[in-house]
Amino acid sequence: MRLLPVLLLAACSAERAAPGPPLPAPVLIGKVEEGAEMLGTKPPPLDVEWLDGEAHPLEDDRGKVVLVRWWTDTCPLCANSAKAVAALKAKHGDRLVVRAVYHEKVRGRRVDAARAADMARDVGFPYLVGIDRGWAALRRWWLDGGRRSYTSVSFLLGPDGRVAAIHTGGEFHARDQVAADACLFTPEACAADYEALDRAIAALAR
């Protein structure tokens, strides 16, 4: 009779340990083929100056889909893509965590937290926003890995914390989010990148 609770406990433990559906294959998205060596890897710590003063290690978001987006205020590509990031967050809701990382591009200029918060609101980033001083995190995550065409890169991390997709830079957005004459690439190419990111998020968050 004493074996019954043990057997039931073992059955419950086996049920909890059952694997979920396999994650989709990692993918590069964008106009340039760069960063393939990072797909499927665990990224470095995201050590930036978060505007709320907290630490926010990536481990806090384990089990969630995370979009890490580098942006700056002097970049029209970033401004155009900000609308797409907002649309992706609105569509996927709590299934998607957005971390918007600001990097200064004007040499010798130091943006304080209040100014960075204003700029984030201006481009539509009501998310967790951080400042990457001296591009330290951007270098560890992206620039030190080889030839890179853009700094406005986006990383999509799967629930396992590994790099599931990289948008290698430029801009991405749906056709109706940016006027055709404001798009610096073709609207078709930008929409294709946006749709690829949307599909990747949906596949990871299922």
The H/E string reads: HEEEHEHEHEEH
Q: How would you sum up the major sheet?
A: 7 strands, mixed
Low-confidence stretches: 1-18
Helix content: 25-40%
Structural class: alpha/beta
Radius of gyration: 19 Å
Number of strands: 7
Commentary on this structure:
With 206 residues, the chain is α/β, with parallel strands linked by helices. Helices cover 32% and strands 16% of the residues. The chain has 5 helices and 7 strands; from the N terminus they run H-E-E-E-H-E-H-E-H-E-E-H. The protein has helices at 3-16, 76-92, 113-123, 136-141, 187-204; strands spanning 27-29, 49-50, 65-71, 96-102, 128-131, 154-157, 163-167. The longest helix is centred in the C-terminal third of the chain and has 18 residues, at 187-204. The radius of gyration is 19 Å and the shape is globular. The termini are far apart. The model is unreliable at 1-18 (pLDDT under 50).
